[in-house]
Predict the 3D structure of the following.
Amino acid sequence: MADYTPAQLRAVFALAEGLNVVATELGRSLRKKLKAAPRRRGGTLRPGVETPLWNALVEGVRPFLHRRGEKALLARELGLDRSRVSQFFVTRRAMPDAERALELLVWLARRRKRE
């Protein structure tokens, strides 16, 4: 009698078990989709999980771009369009070339020194 489960709870347990199976399968399929694709040698990097240094730089620069006109000033200093700077730091769809990334590091160091 210790193993007795009321009929209403058996239905709930069956539903919970089914939901558990579905959740497990969804998790597996999501992990497969989110798994980073192997990089081709010499391939172009895109901002994302596989670019942790760029992500850290973006997080360091973003607080300095809140005031009106800051993105435009940065774009002028880097020799880019303002929309390109927005792609770097707002939509995170692009990354600069190596020279501009180094210029950006210098810009960030100067800004931090001022504060």
Q: What stands out?
A: The CA atoms of residues 58 and 89 lie 6 Å apart. The helical segments are 7-34, 52-61, 70-78, 82-89, 98-114. The chain has a mean pLDDT of 87. The radius of gyration is 25 Å.
